[in-house]
Write a structure and sequence with these properties.
Elements: E1 2-6, E2 9-13, E3 24-25, E4 28-33, E5 36-39, H1 44-57, E6 63-64, H2 74-87, H3 98-104, E7 108-110, E8 117-120, H4 121-127, H5 130-136, E9 142-146, E10 156-160, H6 164-178, E11 185-186, E12 189-190, H7 193-207, E13 217-222, E14 225-231, E15 238-239, H8 252-260, H9 269-282, E16 287-290, E17 293-299, E18 314-315, E19 322-323, H10 325-333, H11 340-347, H12 354-365, E20 369-371, E21 384-386, H13 388-391, H14 393-397
Parallel strand pairs: 9-13
Antiparallel strand pairs: 1-2, 3-4, 4-5, 6-8, 7-8, 9-10, 11-12, 13-14, 14-17, 15-16, 16-17, 18-19, 20-21
Helix pairs in contact: 6-7, 7-9
Amino acid sequence: MDVVELDGNSLLRIYVPESSQVHRCNGRIYDCNEDGDLDITDRTTLVAHLYQRKQATFSENKIYPWIQVGDLRPELIEKCRRYVRINRDNHPWADMDDLQLLKSAQLYQENPVTNENGVTLAGVMLFAPDLLILKVCPAHRTDLILRKVNVDRYDDRDLVRTNLIESYNRILAFVQKHLPDPFYLEGIERRSLRDAIFREVASNILIHREYSSGVPARLIIEYGQVTTWNANRPHGFGVLNPDTFAPYPKNPVIGAFFREIDRAEELGSGMRNLMKYGKAYGGADPQLIEGDVFRMIISVPEFGEKQKDTAEVAQVGVHDVSLTEMMKKIIILLIEPKSTPQLLVQLGYPRRTRNYEAAIKGLLDFKLIEMTLPDKPRSKNQQYCLTEKSKHLIDGIS
């Protein structure tokens, strides 16, 4: 809801997003279109088509008749009951049994064509055991990566392949582990900018992902920024403009459930929060890029200097030569001459990387290693060995 100025007057504009469900008003079903609201309650064919259209529009509503309430995790459903009681003691879900709660949340539905009942894809993603989730949605995963020092691989990683509720907690835990939280006052109260921003990021990754796609979601923490990717059903392409942005629900049922358990804000407010706090946190406005893969780029503060190559640089005492960890590992491995394939195997790399190439070049430039066939640098029989200059470094490095 917002106010628009039109010809000198204030117009109250109310945006009602498309729902993924069929709703009733006073027991009647209406199909809303450009011509008006048509009462189709007694038109069985039109009602069936309406249900089918809704289910085709949102993959989260796919029904699995072979999955029933007993196949889900009851302790996770109870945990969500506790969540809703925190803000509302009289929340309707508090006194419902599991089946009633799932029906109320639109996570258990009836197929209007076959009359079969079952848990929906949304219900599976929220409450099913991990093995059942992967059986229904084998591509489901959220890959959390820290890549600041070892930019070719990673410094830390968490591959999350569990339900969306616990996925949310693990995303925030990974962020809290690896990102700073500078002091910030809003009025007279301290606010965690990091948590305010990445609460929205975590919910966006999970709520707005297209789960029928095989594209995994990723969150990568790099030096000075965090980038996320998730599969998407776009309603436009390019960078979103917060001034002209109109929210569109991607998984309304999952989104509504996250709002009930206080893990997400109302539709559209997440972007406003990102813009509100993003620049204060990282010095630049976040970028949200719509497409078949939805991307977010969020600037983050850094309190230390960026390290070069892949590792901590240490002085080792040969004419004040600085060696990276990669260089030191190669020196230790070259107690006996080795080829590049042999080195890569022992370093745990499947192929040449920029870090490996930089380390070899640096060691050659410092004359700490040499080629066994210097006249044939690209020979398949080429190996590297230590020079006299570097042999005494072995004890100090190891």
